[in-house]
Amino acid sequence: MDKATLQNSMRVNILVVSDRAAGGERADATGLALGEFLKTKNVETVAVEIVPDEKAQIVKALQQMCPDADLILTAGGTGLAARDVTPEATAQVVERLAPGIAEAMRAAGLRITPHAMLSRGIAGTRGKTLIINLPGSPKGAVESLAAVWEALPHAVALLRGPVGDESHKG
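The structure assignment produced for this chain is given below.
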């Protein structure tokens, strides 16, 4: 399956982690910004859910999303504040870490702002689903996703099943 076909068939869910958005105190802008970015890549967002910065609720939402998603993007709760628990919740859900994704996002972010080094976001897999923690700001979330986007269709293909690589045939 070529990259364009794979992108068009990717099932992506977005989990926004925000006390204020979950409580109705402010509208969610980050989930919308991520959805707009995905549209530019011809990828449809299957679901957007908003939960408060509560570890148990994040874990439950991720577990419920996994069976129906190739990719879950979390947005928010990755900083140093006491209520930022998204990485810990994600670590409870994933079976295998994919540290290069988080490292690449932080490295790209550092070219824009020194605050990128404060992100504690992680990435990993659960079954055939890739989960990536993104920052909570719309700008930071989209910049982070853009930094790793080119590798994600291949990652999803690998999780879906065997991927042929003709370069290893001699």
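Interim note for the steering committee: The chain has one domain: 3-159. Confidence is low (pLDDT under 50) at residues 166-170.
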